[in-house]
Amino acid sequence: QVQLADTGGGSVQAGGSLRLSCTTSEYMYCMGWFRQAPGKGREWVTSINSGGSTVYANSVKGRFTISRDNAKNTAYLQMNSLKAEDTATYYCAAGGLGNPVCAARNQPSHYNYWGQGTQVTVSS
C-alpha cells in the first residue's frame, strides 16, 4: 500500500505564504493537491506529472506553484498571496500511469492514494 504524508500547513495572514510538502512511499506518475473547506466538496487545486508538466485551477493560477523532486518522491505546493478563501484542509493525492493523463486528473476519483490532510488557515 502506497503511503502519503502531507505536511506544512499552518496559519498565516492574508498576503502571506506557505509551502506544503507531500512525500510518497514510492514513485508516483501523477501527484496533485485538493482542498476542502468546511461544508464544501473536495476541490482540485493542481497536478504535476513525473516530467514536471503542471496544471492549475483558475482560482490559484499565478499564486500557487507545484513542483516535485522525483529522487525524494516528494511534491511541493508553494502558496503565495494567500487569501481568506484559500482556508481549507489541503490533501495530497497520487496515482500511477493510466487514463486520464495527469493533466486531466481533476476529480478525486482520478487518484488512488491520499494523504491525511494538512490545515491551512488564512486570516484577513
Say how many strands there are. Answer: 11
How far apart lie the N and C ends? 40 Å
- Binned, the helix content reads under 10%
Structural class: mainly beta
SSE order, one letter for each helix or strand: EEEEEEEEEEE
Portion of residues in beta strands equals over 45%
Principal-axes geometry comes out as: globular
Mean pLDDT: 97
Tell me the radius of gyration.
13 Å
In DSSP terms, counting alpha (H) and pi (I) runs of 4 or more, how many helices? 0
The main sheet comes to: 7 strands, mixed
In short:
This protein is mainly beta. The protein is built from no helices and eleven strands.
List keywords for this structure.
124 residues, mainly beta
Explain what this protein looks like in three dimensions.
The protein is mostly beta strands and 124 residues long. It contains no helices and eleven strands. The strands form two sheets. Strands 2, 4, 5, 6, 9, 10 and 11 form a seven-stranded mixed beta sheet that branches. A four-stranded antiparallel beta sheet has the order 1-3-8-7, with no helix packed on it. The protein starts with a strand and ends with a strand.
